[in-house]
Amino acid sequence: MNAPTNFAIIDLTAIAHNVAALKARLGPGTELWAVVKANAYGHGAIPVARAALEAGASRLAVARIREGVELRRAGIDAPILVMGYHLPSEAEAAVAYDLIMTVNDEVFARALDLQARDAGKRAVVHVKVDTGMGRFGRLPDDLMPFLESLASFRHLRVEGLWTHFATADEADKTFTRQQFVLFRNTAFLARNRFDIPILHAANSAAILDLPETYLDAARPGIAIYGLYPSDEVSADAGLRPALTLVSHVGRVRTLPPGASVSYGRTFIAQAHTRVALLPIGYGDGIHRLLSNRGQALIRGRRAPIIGRVCMDNMMVDVTHIEGVQEGDEAVLIGRQGDEAISAEEVAAWAETINYEVTTSLLPRVVRMHTSSTSASPW
Ligand SMILES: Cc1ncc(COP(=O)(O)O)c(C=O)c1O
Q1: How high is the pLDDT of residue 176?
Q2: How much is the pLDDT for 377?
Q3: 328 shares a domain with 292
Q4: Distance from first CA to last CA of the chain, Å, rounded?
Q5: Would you say 8 and 246 are in contact if contact means Cβ atoms under 8 Å apart?
């Protein structure tokens, strides 16, 4: 295989393993719906969706209608829940591609109802209950009147109610438990009046720590990629990180003392310094906060990033690494020899979370999906 300069290897065997591990944790009474929004958190939506479905996910969840359309156009016919906010003008595609919309207001509901009528369909919808996330959805007190108004739309069928936890990834679960109780009580009242078969709430953190929240379906995202939502949740699920990010050493040369590296001259060589160019930068999704802070693995050793990360390039100090030459692999996330750089370590350098590290990878980084039977690169 001809390796591109920068690529991400996504181990679909790890994805399948993680889905199976989470499914086993959920038990037979709870479906697993794989959250593959934002290009499957950077891992490549279509291959990841297929792998997750094969491994036992019964549905997919995305944030945007266009993400659902992309999956449908790839031939995926599993039910797809769209969780995010949309303009009424997008209702036509939702109906045409049989996406299950989350409906939060009458205006969108009306648009969807009209489109479904014209298409001779009954659109399946879910309603989000805002129990403490404060983004969108109906407040608990306002759910019944909203369900009443939805009942007047003859081309809609409310299949599910859901909520989303704001702090499930924190050690203190008090607020999450409050959210859950509020959701359960609100849903109970709604179900006294309306036939709504599916309730769902749990994200990865709740799957790991709060079995009482499992309900009819759970919506894991980060965990199916083999990453834990935070370091405050149980890390006992045996998850395997699926993504390895690789670049290659370009030019290598020795700079004399006093020479500066990259924009702003934030790095000045104190001694003779062997510098390797890595042709990857923030135009590929590497956070600029890694400037003078992050590291890469070359020949199984850590090479510090020196100077500012540029759009297309960065420089690393390889003075202490024997024999570095053009073409050597440079691992930015993943294992090389005895060393490994995790998405969490990168996140700490970039002052963010592992979610953003993988989701930030831009299309210029070639995704290579493998289904190796061998152990994961981790
Ligand atoms: C509504 C909703 N459900 C589920 C998830 C999955 O969360 P996680 O990746 O923490 O499992 C997300 C992700 O942000 C979400 O927005």
Answers
A1: 98
A2: 52
A3: yes
A4: 21
A5: yes
Nearest ligand 1 atom, CA 83: 1
Residue identifier of the C-alpha nearest atom 9 of ligand 1: 221
CATH number of domain containing 205:
3.20.20.10
The answer to whether the Cα torsion of 57, 59, 61, 62 is positive or negative is positive
Q: Is there a catalytic annotation at residue 97? A: no
Q: Return all residues near 195 (Cβ < 8 A) that are at least 6 apart.
A: none
CA–CA distance, 331 with 34 (Å, rounded to integer):
28
Q: Which sign, positive or negative, has the C-alpha torsion 347, 353, 357, 358?
A: positive
Task: Provide the domain count of the chain.
Answer: 2
Q: What is the mean pLDDT of each run of 10 residues along the chain (378 residues)?
A: 86 98 98 98 98 98 98 98 96 98 97 98 98 94 97 98 98 98 98 97 98 98 98 96 98 98 98 98 98 98 98 98 98 97 98 98 97 59
Q: Report CA 318 to chain centroid distance, whole Å.
A: 33
Q: Are 49 and 100 part of one and the same domain?
A: yes
Q: Do 363 and 331 fall within a single domain? A: yes
**pLDDT value for 1:** 52
User: Looking at the domain assignment, is residue 1 inside a domain?
Assistant: no
**Ligand 1 binding pocket includes 203 (Cβ within 6 Å):** yes
